Amino acid sequence: MTNNLENSNYTNEVCNVLNDLRKKIPLVQCITNYVTINDCANILLSYGASPAMCEAYDEVFDFAKISSALYINVGTLTKEQEEAAVLASISAKVNNTPVVLDPVACAAIPRKNSVIKRILELGRVDVIKGNIGEIKFLAGEASEVRGVDSLDNGEGALDSCMLLAKKYNCVVAATGKEDYITDGSRSAIIKNGTDMLTKVTGAGCMVGALCAATAGAYEDKFISTVCAILSMNLSGEEAYEMCKVPGSFRVKLIDCIYTLSTEKIMKEGNILWQ
């Protein structure tokens, strides 16, 4: 187990994700919640991707064909979004487009689970990214949640991620005070981050969008997911150093995503690899 990214065999791969993303400018189709849709679009632009908030039922199948990745967030799920998300995931399966699924509030609202189940059964999912409470719930474990927020302390989170990753043959990431990512064989625990990310609406949605961006630019979805979450956490740390209040922090977060460098990733990334 290694606790410093600079000394890890994965160093170059994680940095390559960011380099490849900024060269390829992946087109990321987003079917996401209305509370944070603008933040997701702006953080994707700042990261080096091209966002398309395409969710109309009559358009999503064709748009998924030309997209580099599809991000599905069920946070404010309307009936049209529900059908559009399922249809887009089917198109992604047919057209080999990577999909990131964000099961927002699945532990609090039962209806969301029927939609998630349809996506998993009919479509394609490469990455499931949720908070610890959501991931534990999907794994059938006891979890503590309050609406869209996880109150879980993280105990057993990696085991839940492993269970889901093996069940659905995908990468699973659980975010919290520490972030857990696994593909069922390789695992990483990211120890970077700041509590200020919990004071800004949509930080989880934004990191889900970043996961889709990296998935659209890099073949290894485990490494790409690590890069996306690490990018968010490092940028959050830097933004917090500049300002200690939520409103200004939110603006600086997007600025810091824009200026994030591979040198910063190498120097400041703090990850336990397993």
From TrEMBL:
Enzyme's top EC category:
transferase
Q: Does the keyword Transcription regulation apply?
A: no
> What reaction does this enzyme carry out catalytically?
5-(2-hydroxyethyl)-4-methylthiazole + ATP = 4-methyl-5-(2-phosphooxyethyl)-thiazole + ADP + H(+)
Tell me which residues bind substrate.
Answer: 53, 202
**Residue sites binding ATP per the record:** 129, 175
Q: Out of the domains of life, which is the source?
A: Bacteria
Q: In which pathway does it act?
A: Cofactor biosynthesis; thiamine diphosphate biosynthesis; 4-methyl-5-(2-phosphoethyl)-thiazole from 5-(2-hydroxyethyl)-4-methylthiazole: step 1/1
Q: What is this protein called?
A: Hydroxyethylthiazole kinase
> Family per UniProt?
Belongs to the Thz kinase family.
Q: Name one Pfam family in it.
A: HK
Q: Which InterPro entries match?
A: Hyethyz_kinase
Provide the alphabetized UniProt keywords.
ATP-binding, Kinase, Magnesium, Metal-binding, Nucleotide-binding, Thiamine biosynthesis, Transferase
Recorded E.C. number(s)?
2.7.1.50
Source species of the chain: Clostridium thailandense
One biological process term from GO is: thiamine diphosphate biosynthetic process
Q: Which GO terms describe its molecular function?
A: ATP binding; hydroxyethylthiazole kinase activity; magnesium ion binding
Q: What does this protein do?
A: Catalyzes the phosphorylation of the hydroxyl group of 4-methyl-5-beta-hydroxyethylthiazole (THZ).
* Stored NCBIfam families: PRK09355.1, thiM
Give the residue spans that cross the bilayer: none
- Cofactor(s) required for function per UniProt: Mg(2+)
